[in-house]
């Protein structure tokens, strides 16, 4: 297993190199000049030439790429064209909002999807099965932005149960906690911020989980039906094991490999695929950072965000592959 993980990590080098090449040269095909966007209509040709020289845009593309790659190897993703902040800091500021939304969405999607799929398989061709599959079809068919706006309209605007946009950050200034007299106040603020953060997460998490719930439910049903027809399941039942034990101990674990694949792929794609959800609910995450970079022709932000998302996606795939050997002991990596 160690050799397999090491080999997979070494394969990241050429893969990330290929991604950097594609991203760097593709973004230069985007229509629009970032220099003209920054200067606006009042910028003169001399101002444009000076700014283009400062940003290094007057050099050939291969030289620009070589400089970008050199900085990337050193962990430097460059500076944003718009605000001159380091791109790594922009990503660090946006990542907490994305990861908390992603984790909550996948927990919700996994629990509901797996449970619905297993129940649907056990009660095949029943009303429960038909309703589950119809619901899964609707979940896959409905656009994410439409689901988000409907949830905002019903639970936010009409009923007023949940906030419809934004994100409340937790209190993170640890230096203040060193003051004993303010400890109770800080704990109270943290708890209030935690509740507020969770309430702001509910609607976007449900919105983002709509499609994964449907996909996981359909996959769980399919794999569960396949496992239920295996000889060892018949043997377990013939031995007199209770149905709950058969389902939880034998069926569930052996039907999870394809489901784990779906969960891993969805989790990785959420980091870049939450663009619509973060935009609809006005959450300043990595997806929104990426879309703002594209709209503003902020090349360093686009490059840094895409490489960060790709790296995380590859890491999630590695974790999923390792989980295979845990779920099925017959799988060995050499």
TrEMBL record:
Domain of life: Bacteria
Transmembrane segments: 9-30, 101-122, 134-157, 198-217, 256-281, 301-324
ABC transmembrane type-1 domain ranges (all copies): 95-324
Membrane topology note: Multi-pass membrane protein
Main subcellular location of this protein, as a coarse class: membrane
InterPro entries per UniProt: BPD_transp_1_N, MetI-like, MetI-like_sf
CDD domains membership: TM_PBP2
BP term (GO), one: transmembrane transport
GO cellular component: plasma membrane
Keyword Metal-binding assigned: no
Compartments in which it is found: Cell membrane
Similarity comment: Belongs to the binding-protein-dependent transport system permease family.
Protein name, as recorded: Peptide/nickel transport system permease protein
């Amino acid at each position: 297993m160690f050799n397999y993980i090491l080999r997979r990590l070494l394969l990241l080098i050429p893969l990330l190199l290929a991604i950097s090449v594609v991203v760097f040269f593709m973004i230069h095909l985007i229509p629009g000049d970032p220099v003209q966007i920054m200067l606006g209509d009042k910028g003169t040709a001399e101002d444009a030439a000076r700014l283009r020289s400062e940003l290094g845009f007057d050099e050939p593309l291969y030289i620009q790429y070589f400089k970008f790659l050199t900085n990337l190897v050193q962990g430097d993703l460059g500076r944003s064209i718009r605000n001159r902040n380091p791109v790594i800091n922009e990503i660090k500021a946006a990542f907490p909002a994305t990861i908390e939304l992603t984790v909550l969405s996948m927990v919700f999607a996994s629990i509901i999807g797996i449970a619905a799929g297993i129940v649907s398989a056990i009660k095949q061709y029943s009303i429960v099965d038909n309703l589950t599959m119809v619901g899964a079809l609707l979940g896959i068919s409905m656009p994410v932005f439409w689901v988000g706006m409907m949830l905002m309209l019903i639970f936010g605007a009409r009923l007023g149960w949940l906030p419809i946009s934004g994100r409340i950050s937790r209190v993170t200034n640890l230096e203040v906690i060193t003051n004993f007299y303010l400890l109770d106040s800080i704990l109270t603020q943290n708890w209030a911020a935690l509740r507020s953060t969770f309430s702001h997460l509910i609607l976007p998490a449900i919105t983002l989980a709509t499609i994964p719930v449907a996909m996981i439910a359909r996959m769980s049903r399919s794999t569960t039906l396949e496992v239920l027809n295996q000889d060892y399941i018949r043997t377990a039942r013939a031995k007199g094991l209770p149905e709950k034990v058969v389902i939880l101990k034998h069926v569930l674990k052996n039907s999870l490999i394809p489901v784990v694949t779906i969960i891993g792929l969805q989790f990785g794609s959420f980091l870049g695929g939450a663009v619509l959800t973060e935009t609809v609910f006005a959450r300043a995450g990595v997806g929104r950072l990426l879309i703002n970079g594209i709209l503003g022709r902020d090349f360093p932000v686009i490059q840094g965000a895409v490489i960060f998302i790709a790296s995380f996606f590859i890491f999630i795939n590695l974790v999923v592959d390792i989980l295979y050997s845990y779920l099925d002991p017959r799988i060995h990596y050499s």
